[in-house]
Design brief:
Helices cover about 30% and strands about 25% of the residues. The chain is an alpha+beta fold. The chain binds nickel (II) ion (NI).
């Protein structure tokens, strides 16, 4: 058990991490798991209940994402294994997109090589090849279904984040040599932090 004082309130982290939908009004920055943490390999479950706890979690995910800073965050990365993603690819950071239970249809045979990074693989940017045009069908924080076409950065981001929900990381697209090099460097970094 690990107790921590925050805003004058004692927070029990053992409860916090077991129940990510804690009363989070006081706590909004969530710890991000980093490669090669095996929990990042968990396949996320569909969201079935759209309540205030879910909406609070989404708020916290946006705060965590903007703070990092990042343009996308999957719940997997904060150790919540439900199919929830937050995205904002706008330059002004004023265009939040909530993506719950996403499904993607690839609309083109065209692919593009783009450099990707990931909050769970800090400091590393590598080329990944993905389809350039997709249709995303998903639900918002109220369970309302929507469908949008996406290209460029948004298409890449959506595919990158959905990979997280499947327990997949962008480093999986790299050669084993490159991936292992990143793994051992991050391992070393994590050992130094402890
Ligand atoms: Ni990522």
């Amino acid at each position: 058990m690990y107790l921590y004082q925050y805003n004058g309130k004692i927070i029990d982290f053992s409860v916090l991490f077991l129940q990510p939908s804690f009363s989070a009004a006081t706590m909004s920055l969530l710890p991000i798991l980093e490669f090669p943490d095996p929990r990042l390999r968990t396949v996320a479950e569909p969201v079935t209940v759209f309540n205030d706890e879910l909406r609070q979690l989404i708020k916290d995910m946006f705060e965590t994402m903007y703070d990092a800073p990042g343009i996308g965050l999957a719940a997997t990365q904060i150790n919540v294994h439900q199919r929830i993603i937050t995205i904002d690819t706008s330059e002004e950071k004023n265009d939040p997109l909530v993506v719950i239970n996403p499904q993607v249809e690839i609309l083109t045979d065209e692919t593009e090589k783009q450099q990707e990074g990931c909050l769970s693989v800090p400091g590393y940017y590598e080329d990944v090849v993905r389809p350039t045009n997709i249709r995303l069908t998903a639900q918002d924080e109220h369970g309302k279904e929507y469908s949008i076409e996406a290209d460029d950065l948004l298409a890449i981001c959506v595919q990158h984040e959905i990979d997280h929900l499947e327990g997949k990381l962008f480093v999986d697209y790299l050669s084993p040599l490159k991936r292992n090099r990143i793994r051992s460097k991050l391992d070393k970094l994590h050992r130094q932090k402890v």
